[in-house]
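$ fold --in a.seq
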Amino acid sequence: MNTDPKFNKLRAELESRQNRHLYRRPRIADSPQQPHRQIDGKALLTFCSNDYLGLANHPAVIRAFQQAANEYGVGSGAAHLVNGHSRPHQQLEEALAIFVGRERALLFSTGYMANLGVVNALLTGRNDVVYADRLNHASLVDASLLSGAKLIRYPHNDTTSLGKRLLAQADNASTQLILTDGVFSMDGDIAPLNKLATMAQHHDAWLMVDDAHGFGVLGNTGAGLVEAQGLTPTDVPILMATLGKALGTAGAFVAGSHDLIEYLIQTARTFIYTTAQPPAIAAATLASLQLVQTESWRREHLQALIQQFRQGAAQLGLPLMASATAIQPILVGSSAQALAISRQLEERGLLVTAIRPPTVPDGTARLRVTLSAAHTPTDVEQLLTALAQIWT
């Protein structure tokens, strides 16, 4: 063990996390992303992936990746503004913009970097204010804090409280930004975008939606929560979504007006100073996007599985949270108990992750069940049977 006293604080924090049942360890997978996997040397039926449409291991997506890798190599070699912007990158940006009904789209290497880049590009003065839902994703929280703007967090989905905060800042704020998840990643519920859009327009504020967990899944065509709620680009001028969830690849994009995207190209540091994602990823995402548009049965099947799980869980009396999305959290409470139930499920051949603080508030540890179009009704029934054995 390292005897340097500087490490004492680190060891104390690690020990504290272990004692509070908050320690985390990565698992090692020896199979592709799919419901039935080999993880840590065991065959497990998994319910903890964000591969909502089952596209991460789709043959057409793999084939597009392989073909592009043969043509463009593995790495992009440079940032987009140097010489790392390839034809597949450009084609993907254009296709994403058309799909979500925006003038332009801009690729980022990750959703985290997209959120950091946009918020810090827009909020540049000491009188700027960002209003953030209290349950926003960590990337939105960090983006708000790093911007240096005044951060005002409002209670989850409480538009009345947000309205009071907007009024209180009316005479002092310069640039204002309302920042929210579309689908909240740990609760599975959705943001009231209609009300947020009305408030943003009334107070001359930007509205930015992180639709990482809605894009590809929600709406008539899968364009996400903005489409599902019947809103326009004027209502929600800044849309961010990730590509590593429903689309099954990696990266993220921001979509908006020509002026917004051009501004981000010139000012978003996480775009300017980052190596572009591999061209093969962009090519694979183009193939995945086509599947989203042509295979609507995936969304329909996913919705049927959600209903099956919720009905079965209700019959068992499980403490489900109010979610109609593929994210179906079972509220447990204590971290120790959530871990214990997760281990019992694993003993029965199922992998369901225990989500604990600080990812969720203290006292709200949960099992985060996520469903995929790659699951079958038999898979869901197997999970419900195991939960019945443990909960009763």
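$ fold --in b.seq
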Amino acid sequence: MKDETKLVTAGRDPEGNFGIVNVPVYHASTILYPSLDALQKTHAARAAGERVVSYGRIGTPTTWSLEDAVADLEGGYRAQVFPSGLAACANAILAVVKTGDHMLVTDSVYGPVRVFCDNFLSRFGVEVTYYDPLVGAGIGELMRPNTTAVYTEAPGSQTFEMQDIPAIADVAHAKGAVVLTDNTWASPLFFKPFEHGVDISIQAGTKYIVGHSDVMIGTVTANKEYWPQLQKSANMLGQTAGPDDVYLAQRGIRTLSVRLNQHMENALQVAEWLKGRPEVHSVLHPAMPDDPGHAIWKRDFLGASGLFSIRLKEVPKAALAAFLDDLELFGMGYSWGGYESLVILADPTSYRTATTWDNTNPLLRLHIGLEAVDDLIADLKSGFDRLNAAK
């Protein structure tokens, strides 16, 4: 089935739920057993990794519905939900590293993952080396005998470098390392991680899966080899997501295709308009033909989302504030993936370690929502008028 059909059908079970279209919300902690024999059999099945209703934290039909839909779309074996995107990132890493291990992480990684690596993993004897996101097959030169994991993200957070994930995966696997990727930007509609050598795929479902800026949730999908480690680690750490949030994510994922295609169309039109503005130094969007990562994007990806960045030309802070403060349709706020447009000021110079970000001109990350493109452009044009007046 095509993805659009999977989005409608995956994870649903009307026959098992009295014909109800959507899997109901199960609020559960305690599960009662009719006999000692039933309790013991359930316990044994759970210990063997089988999917059984045994305790609310372990899973219910509500959580399994979303997990099955995500795993089906990504092309993995099984998926696990977590209470946030960062929880998903952290748990995926913890499932595959141990004291004494070395992990390679792209220098363009989502910021909170860097904080987790530097301040949490380091306390438990896991060494992390950040690498140039453009390293490709050269990743082998950075690998050590104890390198057990390579963490990728394409395109990179804020700066949108495209990684050659298949090349990285080939080298990592040859040296016995697991490959993880953050697939939030493209979602499984526009990037198929397991077809490109990834072993574990992470999504901040808060973004495009939910799509309405009102739920925190994360997902991790693993292949068959690494699923037992992920499941065991998640259960030991007590990580799960609340049933109401899972239900809202279920609802959101059904419309992912129509939303994401519109985000892509809107973003490309806005990016093309911004490219022609005299105030803009450059547009960082891998789907643009002149972007340095366009060839990899075109080879490996099926589409683009609504998130990209622009570098402005040098401008005083007061003029930048005049541009941003009075935008009507672009809100200033973190996260993205909802129906509304957003913009934030970013500063890659503050965190890069393996590479440098030499351009000190303002970097703005934009998420293009589902508003009419003409209205978004008019809002940005008014902002540039204010910027120029304040110089």
